């Protein structure tokens, strides 16, 4: 997802090669954990739980992470081939566009979840009357549309580019001068930093500041577990993505100054930062299992259902499924049914 198609020549080639090997290991682990974990979350929230506003949020968040991790084999293969691109121009556009779209989608959803929690606490009566599953689905549709619009330049400008007889997935100049292309890349990086990190972070911090203030003012004696889960997901996202965004800004500065230290920082830091950012896509299912007893129970039962369904005799599949479903109670992902449409 870096915006430049070529990298500076590293002074410590063996160490840099080791970092890229480590990155491939992290990407592979993220792919395995992310597709499996998020796939199970999609199964649970989409088919095993009663539809609530919260399950709609977390279903869409799991879809974003699942799609993100499902496209990682292209990145893994490219790293293994020393960044040579062998999948053609269309897949280059699609891969980059999907990764950026799901990144925007995730952070937009986290901001929406935070706003939803804030409204549920600050304006509980209004939320009880107007907070519906249908409106949550509509909000998710609008958020995904916004994410797609924000990532549209990557679909337009990213392409398979030949450089010294080697094909890379990079930004194509088309009819742009080098100066115009450089300006475009700088704009995309700054826009991504602001709209995929800074602005959502400010919105989320403001929301939880209001929530904390309301809790202190009313001195509510209630469980903070649902709020802790959301806060953990939000904090994990921003901690994982912060180094990546900062190094993108450092890379912009390195292009301007051509400072060897900055380039070394980018060369050695970007594989680590990118691996950390990508690993975030498999963290949410782990957080749900570790922090939520209700979800942990459903996670276990749904996993058993998948395994048993794979080996059961065809004639007994329906009976097994019906029997298993009868043992699963329908709570929301982070709230009980009684709490989902009231204050969080």
TrEMBL record:
Chief place of localization: membrane
Matching CDD domains: 7tmA_Anaphylatoxin_R-like
PROSITE patterns: G_PROTEIN_RECEP_F1_1, G_PROTEIN_RECEP_F1_2
Domain of life the protein comes from: Eukaryota
Protein name: Chemokine-like receptor 1
Domain G-protein coupled receptors family 1 profile: 37-288
Keyword Disulfide bond: yes
Transmembrane segments: 20-44, 56-76, 96-115, 136-157, 193-215, 227-248, 268-291
